[in-house]
Amino acid sequence: MTERTEAIQAHWTRAGVLGRIEAALAAAGHDPQCPPLAALSAIDHLHTGGLATTKDQAAGITLTAGMRVLDIGCGIGGPARHLASTFGCRVDGIDLTPEFIAVGQELTERAGLTARVVLRDGDGLALDYPDQAFDVVWCQNVTMHIADKDRFLAGVRRVLKPGGVFTSTEFSSGPGGEIVFPVQWAYDGRLSFLDSEAQMRERLVANGFEIVEMSNYSDVVRGRMRAAASAAMPAMSNHLVYGDDTPERQRGTLQNLDERRIIYWMIVAERA
Ligand SMILES: C[S@@+](CC[C@H](N)C(=O)[O-])C[C@H]1O[C@@H](n2cnc3c(N)ncnc32)[C@H](O)[C@@H]1O
């Protein structure tokens, strides 16, 4: 395992996630052994804008029953469970952080979705799936940790069927200057690797993708983040996963978006 992999795992690991989720579910009147996805969704979509962003991203692609989706960097599996239960597709999810996969497997089991959601430990830079196995590769707030983006995209292309779709919500650097830390994904520059918009576009094309949509989604999530930041931290929120310094990291992300030091993109690219 590389030092960087260990650092990413350490960044996201907060022991006791499942216990905190169970306690919050119980306090809100839900059975933690049989949690409704709607209740979990405030906690288990670990990206900018949460479930609303997941829904917008899904609306930009075609998903049908029988399709196979790979969610790279799936976290605790909220988006995977949402896609499988909404569209009937099968979702394989991999993540570098073992704590997330363990929690994600347990929640998937309790939600009764193991027939269509399979989560396991894995690295998006070393995909151990056959060529052309997936209709869709799905990614949310993961590529900021990936320095070797060409290797990542080459792997994504390899596992996609011809005409398959890669969709990603991700940050680029922006014209507003150097990123200010902390942000959700890093306390300093060691775990943060952002391309510019131009580099993102070039890289997608160079790695065999046709860009179908690449929209600046920053204003949408800024609105959602600001509304959340002005309220008290709700009992059911992803701070149960991220840890106690969630508000500070969220404020950092929002500041960088406000000052256009970073830009949040919604990308749909077809395997050419
Ligand atoms: C902000 S979380 C997003 C989780 C999930 N995509 C979601 O939106 O709910 C970022 C995740 O990326 C994972 N990650 C980072 N680099 C990865 C890699 N090379 N392969 C797999 N997962 C990775 C981290 O372990 C972490 O769980």
Describe this entry's structure for a reader.
The protein is α/β, with parallel strands linked by helices and 272 residues long. It has helices spanning 3-12, 17-27, 37-44, 50-59, 78-87, 98-110, 149-159, 197-206, 218-230, 239-242, 246-258, and strands spanning 68-72, 90-95, 117-121, 134-140, 160-173, 209-216, 262-271. A 7-stranded mixed β-sheet has the order 3-2-1-4-5-7-6, sandwiched between helices. The model has no long low-confidence stretch (mean pLDDT 96). The protein binds S-adenosylmethionine. S-adenosylmethionine binds next to α1, α5 and β2.
State the order of secondary-structure elements, H for helix, E for strand: HHHHEHEHEEHEHEHHHE
State the fourth-level CATH superfamily. Answer: Vaccinia Virus protein VP39
Bound small molecules, which ones? S-adenosylmethionine
Strand residues, percent: 15-25%
* Name of the level-1 CATH class: Alpha Beta
Question: Would you report the number of β strands?
Answer: 7
Number of domains: 1
Radius of gyration: 17 Å
Spatial sequence of strands, sheet with the most strands: 3-2-1-4-5-7-6
Mean pLDDT: 96
| Alpha carbon gap, first and last residue | 33 Å
Sheet of most strands: 7 strands, mixed
Give the fraction of residues assigned to helices.
40-55%
**Helix count, per DSSP?**
11
Can you name the CATH architecture?
Answer: 3-Layer(aba) Sandwich
Which structural class should the secondary elements be placed in?
alpha/beta
Mass-distribution shape = globular
Q: Ranges with pLDDT <50 over ≥5 residues?
A: none
In the CATH hierarchy, the third-tier topology is known as Rossmann fold
